[in-house]
Amino acid sequence: MRFSWNPFRRKREFERSMSEELRFYVEQQTAANIAAGMAPEEARRRARLQFGAEEGVKAECREERRGFWLDSLWADVRYSARVSRKHLAITLMAVLTVAIGVGANTAIFSVVHAVLLNPLPYPNAGRLAAIESGFGEELRAPASRYEVAQLRMRSRLFDRIEGIWVTNGLVPGGGEPEQVKLGDVTENFLSLLCAKPALGRLFTADDAIAKGPTAIVISYGLWQRRFGGDPGVIGRTLRVGEYAITIIGVMPQDFRLIFADDQNIPANVDIFMPVQIDLSEPDGPSFLHTIGRLRPGANFAAAQSEADSMAAQIRQLAPNFAAQDFSLHVAPLHQDDVRSVSRPLALLFGGVGFVLLIACANVANLLLARAGARGREITIRAALGASRSRMIRQLLTESILLGAAGGAAALAVGWGALQAMLALRPEPLLRLAPIRLDAAALAFTFAVALASGVAFGLLPALAASRVDLLDALKGGARGATVGKSRWRAALISGEVALSLALLIGTGLLVRTLVEVLRVRPGFEAQNVLTYTTSPGGYEFVHRFTESVAAIPGVEAASAVSHLPLDGTHGNWYDTFYSESTPPELQSKNFADCRSILPGYFRTVGATLIEGRDFTESDDAAHEHVAIVDDALARETWPGESALGKKVNVSDSPKGFYQFERDWVVVVGVVKHVQNFSLTASGRPQIYVPFQLAPRPMSYVVRSSLPAASLVPQIREQLRKINQQAPVARVISLAALVEGARSQSRFVAFLAAALAAIALLLASIGITGVTSYSVTQRTSEIGIRMTLGAGPREVLRGILRQNLRPVVAGLAAGLAMALVLTPLLQSLLFGVKPYDPLTFMLLAGFLLVVAFAACYVPARRAMRVDPMVALRYE
After folding, report:
1. How far apart are CA 164 and CA 174, in angstroms?
2. Between these two residues, 675 and 373, which has the higher pLDDT value?
3. Which of 62, 513, 618, 730 lies at a C-alpha separation of 20 to 30 Å from 598?
4. What is the residue extent of each domain of the chain?
């Protein structure tokens, strides 16, 4: 006989056998009852009562059958799909609500996962540490070569300690000259972050020599641009400035540097050169940003303890380190890299969590309303023997199916939201990591969608399955009353509370953005163009600036070592002290140092408060002079004029980076300039003439001409002086100001978008609950109006009933905001976390929105015809 396995046939046989067996039991009991003297009809009725609901017994038997759960699940899914089609309007609204809530979470999670959760793309990334030097209150200073050598010699927990410094360089010839980013690195820096180059090799200790670079490693991008991806590039020379240097390696295509944004290290460096590390310069300049790799088994707490010990030893060895209260600070490299964005992203993630909770509350209210309409169906199922757990399982299947459909739609919503976020993201997010909808985001979306289905379906399922059969059957055609009003009110209160907390947080962030937009950075950024070119001596810089100033339409031109609000150059700051400063305090005060050409303040629109600008005669052959900002003048000589006072600073009149301390005379005081942030004043500032501190310079041009028409003329003037020098990084000063506002704008925009979504969902929820309440009370309203109640009384009654949970939610939301807004402290500027104006205005605004949401369906109730209402049942 041929064997055939057919699960459907086996299921049919099981059902037939079970029905026959149950019929046999009933007939046996009927026969027993007849034998006891009952009439046949009464005997059968008593047998059925004794046996119980047949469908309930069958359900219990089915649960004992192997594979029942799969059949049951499939049946529940099919039935849920039919119910969803039957209540299509509620289904579509629920799916859309879930899609919005989950999609917003997907978009933010994609950013959080890429930036905060993914490890750095380096070997042994979890063991990499940022090592920052501290001098007094300055805790994030770079290190000197002497300091790195000391750390290498003394550390037992780090197997590598390396450093990098990035500046600009010139690659002439081979077509158009190009300004590139040069990375001076210690010999093992690249091998610490890269397992293997794309071509050639990385540096060894033999490549770092004191007389000048003999080997370079180039980026993949420069290899493609300058050499067309020629695999024979290894061993060839590349002219970098005045040196022709041998190429020994090419970095991988995906290699990038990820450092904290205040360290001014770009993600893409074109050329790496080795720098020598030794113990010969205890007073040398500090310029290396240092990282280390912990040995296996070491932890960061132990590393910090060792760093404290090493700092104490270095203070004993070098008097200048002791005088400056030298310290060391160790942190995981990833944690250090994301320090400026971790708080905003965490708060935004919390915000989308609020939106998801509001969406779940909204859908729960929709399902409660749908459960009320299905009261008769649920009562009949209970009467036929369906257990409460079985009904809960069925209702949860329906909600999970809605969650899954919403999750599928959420992928499209999340993708669109992510694209909008990427278009607005600030520089730190651009630099840190590529952001995309990856497998982790898909898994997150799936998990959140299913969890949401359970979350918004559990309460309606519990409420709908709690059926008193006697009361329900007495209720006639309408069946059991489910979806208790107190649960709907509680959900509305929760929605309002979450919405208000989110609105208040958004209001504070928007007010911060407004304050940031009002900040005067200490200069006038409009109509100022900036650009860089290759480093040159004073004659080159002076001549080039004069030739640009002669272009028709140019009002002023000058140059500065560090553009304000531009993070592409490593900062230059040092200690300073006045003649009256006691020796023990002479290493405690720091100022940002800037080298400028005469006319810089006039070009950028900075305000010279007193004194004069530099002149061409302010050079190394004459008395050394400086201009200080008003912050330094107030701090150093309170209540006095700074003009004519002397201050001790570091300059380098003998050559590039040959720093030495010298007394300079203050000849001018300028208004403080926001160098790094619009919301933090930063260190005071000292300006010295370009002749005293030659550095790579950025040029500034104030002109009434459009920038696009000015650039070709600037290039033409440069070609007349030096055909090998490029014009690079052309950007307006106004664009740098906008970049400084980007993080505040990004956070405020996203928070506003989330608050708008929350407000919309809350409004829909309040309107839906009020409409349902009016529908449920149609008969009551008709009776009241028949007995003499006027339309206005009906309106007031409905508004009073439905605004109670709103008011309760407003009170809870204010309390929640008082607890949560201090978390925004680091993101706020010009406004306090407990700003009463923001709290009261937004609470009032939400109350008005809620009133409007209640008023529309309530006004509809005023127009109910009493006769129609009385026939409603």
Report:
1. 28
2. 675
3. 730
4. 1-52, 137-324, 342-517+742-870, 535-723
